[in-house]
Design goal:
With about 325 residues, the chain is mostly helical. The chain contains 14 helices and five strands. The model has no long low-confidence stretch (mean pLDDT about 95). It binds tryptophan (TRP) and iron/sulfur cluster. The site of tryptophan has 13 residues, from β1, α8 and β4.
Length: about 325
């Protein structure tokens, strides 16, 4: 039986934080056991906002790949590749651009939000508007059945389906498969300062942080703001440290912490020390894998070379069908 095909991409933001790990990467790892998975670095997509500042892209790609592998992505099971190494993506992007109404792009809520959110960059570019068309090309190229993404990407998946339908209709050939979005549950890990966890806010706990760094970061986490003195009872439900316990601490211990916090039997310093320990225990296998990977960095590139060759074979076959359908 043929396995269903999964495809997903990430922009090369460099080292990943534990929000990226829990929100996306862990699912990628789990899915490689069951599906035919393609995971790629969307470096052209990164240019849509960072076209003026490209000096870190190469390092960011490498560091992100290391985190993928440290998390457990296994190149023997999943195909990993880099978008910009497969020019077929650009060719398909161009052809899909011919049939995509501008109005579909302008009404995209993610486009409008990003436009407002990202200040200090001129995003009134053709490339930024066309971002979802490039994403549609990434997805349709591999005839992916399912695409694991976060909520903000749902409009792009909807557009991908519309473009696939329109292509198949116009050229009277069922070249493309309409992909299904696999929504990752909304698990919003807050940063140490209670804002959204983000590398740019400096409030993120990174996958690559050492046990010492984790300890230090956890010790700065915001707790129940009403709990000022050690003797004040706390409310775990409003405390971000407690949200972390629910994820990283065994259930029994978490229940104890909850009860002790409410009775002021445990202080925040001790509570955080327990969390740091559990967080480190969770990350330890990944740290061990990371050391092995970093001892032989050339292996990372070999895995990408192999994955790229494999992906490009599919891309070439799809482009042949596309050219024939269009009668080029
Ligand atoms: N736009 C996605 C993001 O920012 C990255 C991406 C590019 C992607 N191409 C894709 C994700 C194809 C899934 C499928 O998260
Ligand atoms: Fe939060 Fe723990 Fe302090 Fe309670 S004891 S407020 S759960 S850090």
């Amino acid at each position: 039986m043929d396995k269903k095909r999964i495809l997903s991409g990430m922009q090369p933001s460099g080292r990943l934080h534990i929000g990226n790990l829990l929100g996306a990467l862990n699912k990628w790892v789990a899915m490689q056991e069951e599906y035919d998975c393609y995971y790629f670095v969307a470096d052209w997509h990164a240019l849509s906002t960072s076209y003026e500042d490209t000096h870190e892209i190469k390092d960011n790609i490498f560091n992100m790949l290391v985190d993928w592998l440290a998390a457990g992505i296994d190149p023997e099971k999943a195909t990993i590749f880099i978008q910009s190494r497969i020019p077929e993506h650009a060719a398909l992007y161009l052809l899909l651009g011919m049939i995509t109404p501008v109005s579909w792009l302008e009404r995209n809520p993610t486009y409008k939000e990003k436009m407002e959110e990202i200040k200090g960059k001129d995003l009134a570019t053709y490339g930024f508007l066309g971002y979802p068309v490039l994403q549609a090309a990434d997805i349709l190229m591999y005839k992916a059945n399912m695409v694991p993404v976060g909520v903000d990407q749902l409009p792009h998946l909807e557009l991908t389906r519309e473009v696939a339908r329109r292509f198949n209709y116009i050229y009277k050939k069922d070249v493309f498969v309409e992909p299904e979005a696999l929504m990752s549950e909304v698990l919003k890990l807050l940063g140490t300062d209670n804002r959204k966890m983000s590398k740019s806010y400096g409030n993120a706990i990174m996958m690559a942080d050492t046990p010492e760094e984790i300890k230090k970061k956890v010790s700065t986490m915001v707790t129940d703001p009403q709990r000022i003195r050690r003797n004040d009872p706390g409310d775990p439900e409003v405390c971000n440290v407690y949200s972390f316990h629910k994820i990283f601490t065994p259930a029994g211990e978490t229940a104890n912490i909850c009860a002790s916090c409410k009775k002021a039997e445990i202080g925040c310093t001790d509570c955080k020390a327990i969390l740091a320990e559990n967080l480190n225990r969770y990350l330890r296998p990944m740290q061990e894998r990371r050391s092995l990977i970093l001892a032989k960095p050339e292996k990372v590139w070999e895995a990408v070379d192999e994955g790229t060759l494999k992906a490009q074979k599919i891309a070439k076959a799809t482009m042949k069908e596309v050219q024939e359908a269009i009668r080029l």
